Amino acid sequence: MIKKGFIFDLDGVIVDTAKYHFLAWRNLANSLGIDFTEKENEQLKGVSRVKSLEKILQWGNKTLSEDEFMENMARKNQEYLSYINKMDDSEILPDVPKILNYLVESKQPISLGSASKNARAILKKVNLFDTFDAIVDGTNVSKAKPDPEVFLNAAKELKMNPEDCIVFEDSVAGVQAANNANMISIGIGEASVLHEADYVFKDFTEISTEFIQQLIEK
Ligand code: B16
Ligand code: MG
Hints:
Elements: E1 5-8, H1 18-31, H2 38-41, H3 49-59, H4 66-84, H5 96-105, E2 110-113, H6 119-125, E3 134-136, H7 149-158, E4 165-169, H8 172-180, E5 184-188, E6 199-201, H9 209-217
Parallel strand pairs: 1-2, 1-4, 2-3, 4-5, 5-6
Helix pairs in contact: 1-4
Bound molecules: 1,6-di-O-phosphono-beta-D-glucopyranose and magnesium ion.
């Protein structure tokens, strides 16, 4: 049987937690006298918690002591977790289960490849924890996307060659990470933003099981 490794980013691909990150980061930034737009927020997608705060401080031309930095990251995460705690499987993005079920039925190995340290908690909240053969998240990687580490680790966990892996990603940094890993990159979002991806779809309602089957056989 032909097998491919299917790797899913979490935030913005499986669930729309990107909107919760945005809310929590913007509130934190505002409390520091900094504001940023949704366009600038694109740069925070797929990027680690530390890197996100560094970018926001850069935008506001502000510096913090190490203690303040840690305290602000913790405050952001606390607010983020208050949104996460209310999540259930109704927040899984449209047609994601259709594709996941097809892959499970076709016995294709599936991994998560997320920068989030909260990934496992979120997957449990939306009842998808057991669907994945492997989970690589912010607790297992040292280098942030666009570094390919997260996806290379996922391929290793699935015992697949990187060239035989397909990545679903909503962030520019994540698409670059997939490309850097020599994997097929599928952007989920706006084609104008994710133009470096091999394929771009607005969301999973645009992805057919026939397309997935073609990827498997490719
Ligand atoms: P946390 P992904 C990423 O998840 C988010 O896109 C990014 O905005 C966030 O800063 C990062 O996780 C870290 O998340 O604070 O929960 O550890 O898109 O790679 O699934
Ligand atoms: Mg994402």
